[in-house]
Amino acid sequence: MKRAILILIILILDSCKTQFVEQEKTYNANSNEKSIIKTPYSKSSYYFIRHAESNVNKITNPHLSKIGVERVKKYINFFADKQVDTVFTTNLNRTYDTAKAIADSKKAPIVFYDPFKDSFENFIKNHRNSPSLIVGHSNTTPNKVNAVLGIPKYSQMDEDNYSDIFKIVIGSNNKLFDEVLVLEDEIQKINDAKLSPKELKKVLKERKKNAKK
């Protein structure tokens, strides 16, 4: 009798075991069809951004402006808790300045690439398990994201858009999940997370009040 009860308890406990996996919307690189798949926790994230603001003048290869330097500080804040093994950049000053500051903060190496020649099929193959940041330009960054996705999803960035962060996560069987984050919104989330519940409630109330004006 005791043995039968013990066996019954073991069977009940075994039936309660749960395998923890992530459920997420993903893209198949070879199809436009969206699907829900079970993706293992081991996966790689790739971030694509445009360089920060540069000095707009007659110089053909300008460095970052003061506003651009301040934006890079926000990017460093954004990437502070994210794994970045390698930072890729084109060889222009404005992209290199952006990439170097972030790479230094992550103690990550910098690799130069040609946005018009380098194959991102080979890039994914060679950096399959290496979370990376790719710094580009308004007319190249969306194209590289599209190349990874395998579909023409994103159009060229507006000239005044320095905030979009394209994120691609590659899961099992080359299933892809992509999203666009906005730098200012992400920094606001980071700052909100540092507040106490009381302070956050006050901030959200004030923010809601200002939104109605």
Total helical segments: 7
The rounded distance between the terminal residues' Cα atoms is 74 Å
Provide the residue-averaged pLDDT.
79
Estimated radius of gyration: 22 Å
The CATH class of the domain at 42-189 is identified as Alpha Beta
Q: What is the 3D shape?
A: globular
Poorly predicted regions: 1-42
Query: What's the arrangement of strands in the largest beta sheet?
Result: 2-1-8-7-3-6-4-5
CATH architecture descriptor name of the domain at 42-189: 3-Layer(aba) Sandwich
Q: What structural category arises from helix and sheet content? A: alpha/beta
By DSSP, the count of extended strands is 8
| Percentage of residues assigned to helices | 25-40%
CATH H-level superfamily of the domain at 42-189: Phosphoglycerate mutase-like
For this structure, the CATH topology of the domain at 42-189 is Rossmann fold
Largest sheet, described in full? 8 strands, mixed
**β-sheet strand percentage:** 15-25%
H/E element order? HEEEHEHEHEHEEHH
